[in-house]
Amino acid sequence: MAGTQRVAVLGLGGMGRPMAANILRAGLPTVVWNRRPEPARQLGGQGAEVADSPAEAVRRADVVITMVTDADAVVSIAADLGMLAAMAEGVIWAQMSTIGVSGTERIARLVTEQRPDVVLLDAPVAGSRGPAEQGKLVVLASGPEQVRDRIGPVFDAIGQRTVWVGPAGSGSRFKLVNSLLLAFIAEGLAESIAFGHALGLDRAAVVGALQGSPLVSVWADEKLQRIGQDDYSPQYPLSLAIKDVNLALLEVDVDRFAVANSLAAQWQRAVDHGLGGEDLTVITRVLQH
After folding, report:
1. Average pLDDT of the chain?
2. Residue 175 annotated among the catalytic residues of the structure
3. What protein family is recorded (predicted)?
């Protein structure tokens, strides 16, 4: 079955592009589309079919993946640019962008109203650009159980693990939990390094002492290495990280989650000062100055 699955990937940014490349490497026929054509052309050089429009991309697809910035971008592709109308009956649409609870409900309504014969999966991913390139994302999948075998080879190409968490909409809820934990870990690393700096400690010594600690995950260890090198090139840009934290805060009483709200305000100030394109660990630099 894996060889017969034709996959369309729409959105080839920092996450979508490596995801599409891994699907290609898994031997699945892949067609790609992106608003900026250059990433699609590069994947074309690796064997992908390059489409001129979302409608063209999905016309013969068995599985459609959207991986874009926000809910407005998803709606634009699906409705305004003709993706939904061009999909065949029974096609799986794996919506993998992080768009929050209300954004996912908006997409579900769109499918119910316009294409109830399409199978919608809500399947955001946990992980940043590095794990995406390595095929080590975790897919937080939700939706009808009957299509799990069909989508399995695609999710296996993208990630090291797929966690099925319930009906469509559950995946986006779990992603918000993941995003908030990730934000606290990143902030904890930044504040710890900055605190060491305030105490007069050498940064390399602090980083070395923290690495290998039972408190430090594989993801955090990689971030520590990059902080130690003063490397804030974007793996997970701060502008996207604050977007995801804000999506989480939209769903709760922020007065009950004062620490998360304070973190969001601090990160927003950094974005307002032009640091949104840097990795979220650039908060280390902000705290040290």
Report:
1. 96
2. yes
3. Belongs to the HIBADH-related family.
